Amino acid sequence: MTEQSSGEGPRITLNDAPRLGEFLRARRTAADPARWGFESDRHRRVPGLRREELAQLSQVSVASIARIEQGRTHRASKDVLTALADALELSGEERAYLFVAAGRPTHDDGRRSPGTLQDDAVPVALAHLVHDLSDVPALVLNQRLDILLWSRAAAALFVDFGLLTRRDRNLVRLAFCHERYRALFGHQWETMARNIVAALRSQADRCPDDTALQALVGELVIHDSLFAAWWGATTPPASKPPRLTCHHPTAGEITLETHVLRSEGHQRADLTLVTCAPRPNSPSQQALRLLLEGIGDVDRAVAG
User: Is the pTM higher than 0.70?
Assistant: First the structure.
């Protein structure tokens, strides 16, 4: 979000501020759901944003938000705090308290200035689109293949991205450095990984001055011999499979058809939306639906 919240809200100072969990819950319940496009109606049992809505906006898991609000953790990571502060559009004073209450330094917290679209910002319209695709695995990537935004289904099927650091939320690092993510693709991993390397090379050619991209390539060339070999190869990558099968440990095999859409918006032409959808009325669609229903049951139990 890049706009300043329209609501004033209560002023918070370090002398009279509530504890971390109470403060986060107070700011969540004070938020106007309509501000972020959520329905605000009389059927809500409590005012403000629901936990799952804040989780969608911040990409922090419902379980993590529940632990903070229920006082079961007092030292959330800087990435989690920054994501929650950005999602709730906290003022400078409120943001400072959030970090102090969690025992974190308040400097260099990655705050976005109102009206400024920085490197990790996703346009609101695209964020709403991913929200509407909650039952479809979907990712928003930048030119370095950093994962900036993901759907509920993507977190359930692939990995809970909200539990990863910002550095590790990268499609290349996941493919080469995350064993559980790699295992999901079985014998298709090599084809998938080769195409990721080819996609990164294409981006490197388009953005030769991106030092962060160069650093990512240098790191993986040193630490992974397969990446180094494929990066230096002159042969074209393997053809993209029409379908990709995930071997989920509880849901079983789920076959997906992948679609890649590049953003043409004037603000962020470097963004890519990737969706991975099973065929309608297929066993894979049923397996994904059951997986999401199971995740929803767990989230409701934790939230309750």
Answer: no
